[in-house]
Amino acid sequence: MCYCLVLVESTTIKDNTHFFAPGDNVEVTEGELVNLRGKVVSVDGPKVVMMPDHEELKEPLTLNISELRKYFRPGDHVKMISGRYEGDTGLIVRVEHNLVVVLSDLSMDEMKARPRDVQLCADITTGVDSLGQFQFHDLVQLDQQNVGVIVRLEKETMEVLNQHGKVLRVKPQAIQGKKDTRHSQALDSQQNPIQCRDMVKIIDGPFAAKKNEEEKQGEIKHVYRSWVFVYSRKHVENGGMLVCKARHLLLIGARAGTTRSMKTPLMVLSP
């Protein structure tokens, strides 16, 4: 198998003291072993123990941190260890000049970071904020009149898609609380009651399919009054989350002109 290896930025002692870790893929940048590649075994101050990837070198080597730089393969799974996206994980999709572009496991958005802020990682982020209060895709109360769904969790802030389709960056302390919408319902375009976990088609409004486009559909995550938050894998923005009016939706499996019987009374969230 042939891998396309992309080398990224030389590193300094200051940078690497904090950001090199066992398991990192590295390349020697100077001295007799220049271009030798290997994997970090341990880091001790300004020294790195590296296991070389070379058939004639079977023993670990100790090198100065300043002699090494990281390299990544497209397809490597990594974790953001500092910066704006700290704690997020994803897949490297490409490497640009002194930047790696990572596709987030949670939001499916692209994140750009310096290689020194990235580390190889097998785990996938849980989508829980640093205080453990909120999760990815929670519906939260922003103020007395507005709610929104969390579409990105960052180190100190979160991005929330409100019921009007706007993305706001807020601090967790500003959130008034979470909303439980498991039993909330609304009526779709054919007066069918729809609720959390129902699969729906978007047949009207700004997200309806244009001419020659495939019809967009998704799973209802939350119902709030006449607004419905729908998760669609084909929606590339905001981690696949979009918000629609209930009347712009059609319950999948329901036929036009018919209604699904209501097993429970229609419930609408109070402010």
UniProtKB/TrEMBL annotation:
GO molecular function, one term: mRNA binding
Primary localization: nucleus
Keywords (A to Z) from UniProt: Activator, Nucleus, Phosphoprotein, Repeat, Repressor, Transcription, Transcription regulation
Subcellular location: Nucleus
Any one of the GO CC terms: DSIF complex
Matching SUPFAM superfamilies: Translation proteins SH3-like domain
Matches recorded under Gene3D superfamilies: 2.30.30.30
Full protein name: Transcription elongation factor SPT5
Organism: Strongylus vulgaris
